[in-house]
From TrEMBL:
Homology family: Belongs to the isochorismate synthase family.
Reactions that this protein is recorded to catalyse: chorismate = isochorismate
One Gene Ontology molecular-function label: isochorismate synthase activity
Keywords tagged on the record: Isomerase
Pfam families: Chorismate_bind
Presence of the UniProt keyword Isomerase in the record: yes
Name of the featured protein: isochorismate synthase
UniProt cross-references to SUPFAM superfamilies, sorted A to Z: ADC synthase
Length: 336
């Protein structure tokens, strides 16, 4: 990376930055580059109208795995959890849609911005694979000088259009022993990794609620100050993947994912963002996302499993999460 920064400075960039995507499996190649031009814009309101052609109905939809296969994989993971071999595992599923005409990535992206204004939005070309777009609710890392923050999410509940039912769902999530346990595993592991690196570290004793258009999440914002200079990219790679997207312990959970998921995650569950030559940067988790490749669209969603998890409930949760991207494509129904 230093060589790329040096080349960029010689080309006239005063503070170059590396931008791109790091896959879920860090052993796979990352898609990182140093742009010739980089602009930081203030947050803007999402578009009030979306220009572009509608996608139309999907011609076909292939589930990997289907309902029975997903529930079977969850049951196999639950056996390992109840035997104490792992404490948490995150299993995901994929929807592959085929359209008659190639969906317009820019139109879909603007639709995501409109429907999910609170998210971290991204759109990036993946050479040979298509365009990755998404609206992630989860910040892995924001760093400026030695100050940093991270906002992991773990534990979720479906929202309701009825205010009273929605408020009850939020309260039930806060009171859920299962979801609190799942969340605590993530926070404890992040604290374990961060504490030795920090001059100060603030870890709230209990999570709060974060809401998106479709889900309530248990959320804990952690912030601190590093003892030594460590770039945002290096720190993000140390933390990634967190138990929120992988499980715990990390190595054992990754092995479970490799054995039980019938597809390669690629960039799903990875991180996307930037890091400048001064070490500042911001990285979000690649969730609520999809890849558009000509007429083919691949959408992903995962669910965190602990010993108290229920296969049918986890299937419904992934369906709700897939609804974020399906709505952006005009397919406004959950993949249940």
């Amino acid at each position: 990376m230093q060589q790329a920064f040096d080349d960029a400075r010689r080309a006239g960039l005063s503070n170059p930055a590396v931008v791109g995507v790091i896959p879920f499996d860090k052993a796979q190649p990352s898609r990182l580059f140093v742009p010739r031009h980089l602009a930081f814009l203030p947050p803007s309101a999402p578009p009030t109208a979306i220009c572009g052609l509608p996608c139309g109905a999907a011609r076909s939809c292939i589930e990997q795995p289907g309902r029975a296969g997903f529930c079977d994989a969850v049951n196999q993971a639950l056996d390992l959890l109840r035997e104490g071999r792992i404490d948490k595992a995150v299993l995901s599923r994929l929807l592959q849609l085929e359209f008659d005409e190639p969906p317009c990535a820019q139109t879909i992206f603007q639709g995501l911005r409109q429907q999910n204004p609170e998210a971290y939005h991204f759109a990036v070309d993946l050479p040979g694979e298509g365009v990755l777009i998404g609206a992630s609710p989860e910040l892995l890392l924001r760093k400026h000088r030695r100050a940093f923050s991270t906002n992991p999410l773990a534990g979720s509940a479906k929202r309701s259009l009825d205010p009273l039912t929605d408020a009850e769902a939020a309260r039930a999530l806060l009171d859920s022993a299962k979801d609190q346990h799942e969340h605590r595993l993530v926070i404890d592991d992040l604290e374990r990794q961060l504490r030795p690196l920090c001059r100060t570290l603030n870890v709230p004793p209990a999570p709060t609620l974060l809401k998106t258009a479709r889900l309530w999440h248990l959320s804990t914002r952690i912030d601190g100050e590093l003892q030594d200079e460590l770039s945002a990219l290096r720190l993000a790679c140390r933390l990634h993947p967190t138990p929120a997207l992988c499980g715990f312990p990390t190595a054992a959970a990754k092995q479970v994912i490799a054995e039980l998921e019938p597809f390669d995650r690629g960039v799903f569950g990875g991180i996307i963002g930037w890091c400048d030559a001064a070490g500042n940067g911001e990285w979000a988790v690649v969730i609520r996302c999809g890849i558009i490749q000509q007429t083919r669209v691949r959408l992903f969603a995962g669910a965190g499993l602990v010993s108290a998890s229920c296969p049918e409930a986890e299937w419904r949760e992934t369906g709700t999460k897939l609804g974020t991207m399906l709505a952006a494509f005009g397919l406004d129904k959950e993949a249940v």
